[in-house]
TrEMBL record:
The lineage of its organism: Bacteria, Pseudomonadati, Pseudomonadota, Alphaproteobacteria, Hyphomicrobiales. GO terms for cellular component: plasma membrane. Its EC number is 4.2.2.-. InterPro entries: RlpA (IPR034718), RlpA-like_DPBB (IPR009009), RlpA-like_sf (IPR036908), RplA (IPR012997). Residues 31-116 form the RlpA-like protein double-psi beta-barrel domain. It is a lipid-anchor. This is Endolytic peptidoglycan transglycosylase RlpA. Lytic transglycosylase with a strong preference for naked glycan strands that lack stem peptides. It is found in: Cell membrane.
């Protein structure tokens, strides 16, 4: 009986602790603010930033990772490739290229609340 009780307590503790992790704890999925940028400088991956292609910056996802980004205000989605690091502003989870921002309808506002998930 004590073994079962310990197992149950351990399972409940693990479940409770994992639910307290921040949304950014697992970088493959998350929600937060997004912004867009259209520079023509070099990205952290070494390629030149092209605002006309569907790319994005993320703090920790591997370069080349494909991510589906959904605008929470209108439900529009876009799949982008991570090729840069950022954003470096609190509350923001991803920076999109201008083309990606245009696809999800956030160019005029400059920022939007989004959710993202790794697709490959």
């Amino acid at each position: 009986m004590k073994k079962i009780r310990r197992s149950i307590i351990a399972a409940v503790t693990i479940a409770a602790c994992s639910s307290m992790l921040p949304a950014e704890g697992f970088a493959g999925n998350g929600c937060g603010g997004a912004s867009w940028y259209a520079l023509r400088s070099k990205t952290a991956s070494g390629e030149r930033m092209n605002p006309a292609i569907l790319t994005a910056a993320h703090r920790s996802l591997a370069f080349g990772t494909k991510v589906k980004v959904t605008n929470r205000n209108n439900g529009r989605t876009v799949v982008v490739r991570i090729n840069d690091r950022g954003p470096f502003i609190r509350g923001r989870v991803i920076d999109l290229s201008r083309a990606a921002a245009q696809n999800i309808g956030m160019v005029s506002s400059g920022t939007a609340k989004v959710c993202y998930q790794v697709v490959s």
